[in-house]
Amino acid sequence: MRAIPYIVQKEFLQIFRHRIMLPLIFVMPVLQLLVLSFAADYEVDNLRLHINDLDRSQASRQLVGHFQASPHFTLTGNGAGGAGQIHRGEADLLLEIPLGFNRSLAKGNRAEVQVAADAINGVQAGLAQAYANAIVQSFSRQFSGPTRGLLSIETANWYNPGQDYQTFMVPGILVILVTLVGMFLSGMNIVKEKEIGTIEQINVSPIGKGAFIVGKLLPFWLIGMAELSIGLIAGRLVFGLPLAGSLAIIFVFAGLYLFVVLGFGLLISTFTETQQQAMFLAWFFLIIFILMSGLFTPIESMPPWAQALTKGNPVAYFVDVMRLVLLKGSGWQDVQPHFGVMAVYAGAVNTLAVLNYQKTN
Amino acid sequence: MQNSPQSPIIEASKLTKQFGAFTAVDAISFEVERGEIFGFLGANGAGKTTAMRMLTGLSRPTSGQARVAGIDVAAHPEKVKQRIGYMSQKFSLYEDLTVMENIRFYGGIYGLPRKQARQAGSQLIEQLGMEAFARKQVSGIPLGWRQKLSFSIALLHQPDVVFLDEPTGGVDPVTRRQFWEMIYQAAETGTTVFVTTHYMDEAEYCGRVSIMVDGQIAALDTPDRLKSEFQAANMHEVFLQLTRPKP
Ligand SMILES: Nc1ncnc2c1ncn2[C@@H]1O[C@H](COP(=O)(O)OP(=O)(O)OP(=O)(O)O)[C@@H](O)[C@H]1O
Ligand SMILES: [Mg+2]
């Protein structure tokens, strides 16, 4: 136990001795946060809209007015022939308001409008429909009062109308960056000492395995926490990241989460002989963890087997906690299950790492 | 019985290591007395490093037993580790740390109190005459100096035995000479030195020498007796007679 401070000191000396490491650990992730978050902006403006208003009533004109007021749409034509326009690629979305629209609404009956999109660009088509739905929905509320939604429209659940897409993405991207830095720092560490040969010198000393692992983890843990803090500040300053819940929850969870990531890295380090092998293994898991974290693809839309897999994905838990706490304002109770899973994970991974690290072989 | 001064400091009996079907160390038995300088010779691949790794608790024997400082190595490897120093064939210092930082780190992991480690460190640097290098990164100092430093660090916690695996490989003759003076000093203070080398002039400096051939100990005695037994003028000839493939 007395040896731990010496190991921590040595690791810090080695990390920051190399001039490239400081910017690599702290500046690059912030740049990545900026680039990825700006790039992850899926908002599309000025979609070309063709409207065929068959009703030509007060209600229909109001609905058209709503569409014209939206920044997402530019009216490029009206009347019949919209389908042809879409076919020729001259319009992105066709809105058809049927005859009797006004009458149905006035009678308190359900009314329907038809929306058709050019689905060649799937993402854009989805967005166009989602925007249209949002507009129709708000029109419907205004027309008939909030309790009587006469135009019931389904909104895709991954898109939250009125919410800035960036604030939705930034917390998740932060998780990824903290994960990357933590995993690589720890994953490359012990295996590097194996390559150089210094691990023999450690193994022939009476130092305890637990103390050695803790001494190795602590510096990276501190760096990970610093990384998260910097990322949160950058997210706040640049993207106006909201803080609906308690920052304490985020940091306590991050602390636990980092033990999982670092333990995972160390485990990889104990299984491999060269940094190259460790790098491949780390990437293998990182790609799966990140792509299946619910950050880019909503977990709800994955097939059941994949959804089951995400239950074992630590990244998914942290992304969820970040969004819940930062955006939704969830409290300790709401994320209790997340804490439970993470604690078990941390215990298991680190126990495995200590067991698999053999001083004698 | 553990620390009785009469009992040998190293006892190997039928120590064996197999890698798959290949036997790297083949049932070797020998004893080393306290304060001895014991030379462990053998051609490349004879099994010296493998044997040494079993003696230091780094490698588990396939069969046979090793006792160091009276302790069964396989049963209590961590206990043995407190009592031994080791300088591996691979480089054992952190190149991106300074001389001082290396000393402090190794002092720390052997449980030396911080103050004692610092004192030992500056004393060591003074003894080695390395004042000019103290704040330099190890990567920037010459090999001979590094090896002397590694040796001193292996002695930092005052072990009963120190294992040196080819400590002078690639080092110039003058520095090799200085290195051997350090070995003698250590032996004078009662530390047993177990050393491998490929330099036959160094074999002459040892109290006793064992010569390994293909995992087995082909000869073990003082250099003088080996020379007369093999009617050789020097250890080089003894070595050649033992290791040269039989016609
Ligand atoms: N981990 C291992 N797995 C398989 N074979 C090994 C392993 N370690 C050593 N060997 C083999 O065992 C034999 C003895 O190796 P060892 O390193 O003990 O020789 P050595 O006498 O120290 O040689 P050198 O003088 O080159 O250092 C060699 O043939 C080597 O290839
Ligand atoms: Mg060797």
TrEMBL record, chain A:
Task: Report the locations given in the UniProt record.
Answer: Cell membrane
Write out the transmembrane intervals: 20-40, 168-191, 212-234, 246-268, 280-299, 339-357
In terms of superkingdom, the source organism counts as Bacteria
Keywords attached to this Swiss-Prot or TrEMBL record, sorted alphabetically, are:
Cell membrane, Membrane, Transmembrane, Transmembrane helix, Transport
One MF term in the entry's GO annotations: ABC-type transporter activity
Instruction: Give a GO cellular-component term.
Output: plasma membrane
Q: Which Pfam families match?
A: ABC2_membrane_3
Task: Extract the Gene3D superfamilies matched here.
Answer: abc type-2 transporter like domain
Q: What InterPro entries does the record tag this protein with? A: ABC-2_transporter_component, ABC2_TM, ABC2_TM_bact-type
Residue ranges of every copy of the ABC transmembrane type-2 domain listed in the record? 125-360
* Membrane topology label: Multi-pass membrane protein
Q: Which family does it belong to?
A: Belongs to the ABC-2 integral membrane protein family.
What is the protein's name according to its record?
Answer: ABC transporter permease
Question: Which organism encodes this protein?
Answer: Phaeodactylibacter luteus
Automatic annotation (TrEMBL), chain B:
User: Known InterPro entries for this protein?
Assistant: AAA+_ATPase (IPR003593), ABC_transporter-like_ATP-bd (IPR003439), P-loop_NTPase (IPR027417)
**All copies of domain ABC transporter, residue ranges:** 10-239
| Region forming the signal peptide | none
Q: Which GO terms describe its molecular function?
A: ATP binding; ATP hydrolysis activity
Q: Which PROSITE patterns match?
A: ABC_TRANSPORTER_2
Its keywords, alphabetically, are: ATP-binding, Nucleotide-binding
Q: What is this protein called?
A: ABC transporter ATP-binding protein
Source organism of the structure: Phaeodactylibacter luteus
